[in-house]
């Protein structure tokens, strides 16, 4: 009898362990054909940005190696996903195509069409939940509505999660004798053409084993202090799992299970719960993106459509370049540029600064993050920007304007984070490092800082900017 074959369409699930689509293909068919299609047009307005493409290049290289070790070859193609899958079904004789679901609005629509057209051609299609702890449509309020507030959402999700047991990675992946033609990862030309990514290489290990390493490191050395330490950008205190999670090199089920199987005493249990609730925010972000798909560009709170932003190319540029004259803001923006990642506390500070001190639309910040973050994720980024600008579900109220000096002094008390990313302030004493404009001339001289020359003067007066932001908010208040 002829052997049956199935196609596993890899997308944001670049792993072999706990991959329900792959596991299903292996039990259903005699042979399995792993496929990746580079199809930026299929992502609507949100094709991967430059930093994400860097990550993707390395993650695909890792996946190719892991598959080869198990006897399979990743078939890499570029172009329209639907057309390519249909061609592969035709040329390989596969009678099943499987994938793990995605939730971005344009991708949902594209995948629906692909599924329909493959089924119409007689091919079976099965899709799986590989990226979330709960599907967005499985969680609803007592009234049957989507949640808009995190705490009851997470309580409801958590209540159903006792039996999370991730799937093992397969030892072998039987493949057809003739593998279809494939491009090499290099052919996709995902790496930047400018010299920008040097520090990425020192910071990250993309791929499934890198994800596992980050998780192990977090569980052994960082989790115990996470509840207190997670707001400190000057210390490695969070998991740095976000790009691995975005690309599906690790699943939230694996994380949930690993945390709960680790040795949790009283103090660590509290930290573990706080950490898992952050993973819960990711679930909430996907819940909101699924139920309110226009929020990628439109504020959830409609009144904000009338917000009187004061668009300014030079203000936006100063923020993007980390040249606002506010050290904690500049440190964050330079960290982002250097390593494609920024600490969550600092994301909140720079987000508040852009939207409130500079009155630039949150969508501009979201777009910059989209291009420069290795963890750029449509659900989390949308939630983050709507949260900081006050226009989203369960968001910080608009009138909560972060004071960049006080935030710096509280969360980077010795100034180490600023010293690391803003080297021209390296010799400033801690007392003045978050407000160099207030320092006596003798201190500036000794630290070899000349404001306006070696480091920018502040581009706004925070007190005045705060008043202007609150006045702008009066226009839409009550909406
Ligand atoms: C303006 C803004 C934009 C953001 N954009 C993104 C983005 O594009 N991609 C992204 O993954 N995160 C985004 N975040 C959320 C958060 O900053 C990052 O997930 C976190 O800093 C990643 O670091 P970590 O993996 O060490 O997090 P940890 O503290 O170790 O948390 C573990 C995981 O939980 C999830 N998580 C943590 N905090 C949040 C949160 N506030 N919202 C949603 N999920 C969370 C992430 O998947 C993270 O990897 C944004 C936050 C803000 C304020």
Any overview of this molecule?
By secondary structure, this protein is mainly alpha-helical. It has three domains: 5-131, HUPs (Rossmann fold, 3-Layer(aba) Sandwich), CATH 3.40.50.620; 132-163 and 208-291, Alpha Horseshoe (Serine Threonine Protein Phosphatase 5, Tetratricopeptide repeat), CATH 1.25.40.80; 302-474, DNA Cyclobutane Dipyrimidine Photolyase, subunit A, domain 3. Helices cover 48% and strands 6% of the residues. It has 21 helices and five strands. The chain has a five-stranded parallel beta sheet, sandwiched between helices. Strand 1 (5-10), helix 1 (20-28) and strand 2 (31-38) form a beta-alpha-beta unit. Helix 5 (150-158) packs across helix 11 (266-291), helix 11 packs across helix 16 (378-389) and helix 15 packs antiparallel against helix 16 (378-389). The chain is globular. The model has no long low-confidence stretch (mean pLDDT 96). The structure holds flavin-adenine dinucleotide (FAD). Flavin-adenine dinucleotide (FAD) is lined by residues 230, 238-242, 245-246, 278-279, 281-282, 285, 344, 347-348, 351, 369, 373, 375-377, 380-381, 383-385, 388. The site of flavin-adenine dinucleotide has 28 residues, from helix 9, helix 11, helix 14 and helix 16.
């Amino acid at each position: 009898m002829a052997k049956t074959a199935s196609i596993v369409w890899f997308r944001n699930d670049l792993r072999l362990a706990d991959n329900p689509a792959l596991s299903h293909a292996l039990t259903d068919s005699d042979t399995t054909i792993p496929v990746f299609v580079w199809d930026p047009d299929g992502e609507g307005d949100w094709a991967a940005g430059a930093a994400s493409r860097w990550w993707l290049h390395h993650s695909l290289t890792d996946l190719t190696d892991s598959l080869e070790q198990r006897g399979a070859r990743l078939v890499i193609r570029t172009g329209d996903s639907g057309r390519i899958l249909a061609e592969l079904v035709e040329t390989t004789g596969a009678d099943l195509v499987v994938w793990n679901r995605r939730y971005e609005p344009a991708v949902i629509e594209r995948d629906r069409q692909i599924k329909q057209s493959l089924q119409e051609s007689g091919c079976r299609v099965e899709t799986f939940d590989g990226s979330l702890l709960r599907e967005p449509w499985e969680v609803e309020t007592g009234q049957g509505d989507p949640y808009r507030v995190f705490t009851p959402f997470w309580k409801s999700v958590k209540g159903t999660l006792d039996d999370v047991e991730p799937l093992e990675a397969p030892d072998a992946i039987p493949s057809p004798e003739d593998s279809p033609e494939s491009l090499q990862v290099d052919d996709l030309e995902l790496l930047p053409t400018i010299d920008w990514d040097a520090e990425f290489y020192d910071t990250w290990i993309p791929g499934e084993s890198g994800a596992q390493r980050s998780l192990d490191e977090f569980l052994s050395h960082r989790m115990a202090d996470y509840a207190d330490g997670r707001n400190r950008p000057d210390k490695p205190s969070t998991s740095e799992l976000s790009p691995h999670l975005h690309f599906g090199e690790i699943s939230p089920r694996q994380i949930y299970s690993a945390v709960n199987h680790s040795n949790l005493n009283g103090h660590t249990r509290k930290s573990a719960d706080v950490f898992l609730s952050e993973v819960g925010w990711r679930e909430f972000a996907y819940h909101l993106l699924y139920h309110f798909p226009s929020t990628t560009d439109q504020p959830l709170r409609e009144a904000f459509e009338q917000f009187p932003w004061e668009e300014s190319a030079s203000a936006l540029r100063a923020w993007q370049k980390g040249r606002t004259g506010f050290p904690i803001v500049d440190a964050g923006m330079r960290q982002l540029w250097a390593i494609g990642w920024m600490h969550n506390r600092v994301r909140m500070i720079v987000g508040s600064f852009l939207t409130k001190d500079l009155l630039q639309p949150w969508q501009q910040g979201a777009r910059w993050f989209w291009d420069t973050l290795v963890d750029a994720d449509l659900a989390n980024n949308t939630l983050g920007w709507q949260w900081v600008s006050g226009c989203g579900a369960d968001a910080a109220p608009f009138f909560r304007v972060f004071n960049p000096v006080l935030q710096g002094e509280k969360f980077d008390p010795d100034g180490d984070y600023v010293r690391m990313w803003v080297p021209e302030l390296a010799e400033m004493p801690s007392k003045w490092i978050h407000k160099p404009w207030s320092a006596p001339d003798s201190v500036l001289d000794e630290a070899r800082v000349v404001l306006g020359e070696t480091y920018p003067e502040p581009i706004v007066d925070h007190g005045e900017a705060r008043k202007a932001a609150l006045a702008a908010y009066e226009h839409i208040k009550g909406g």
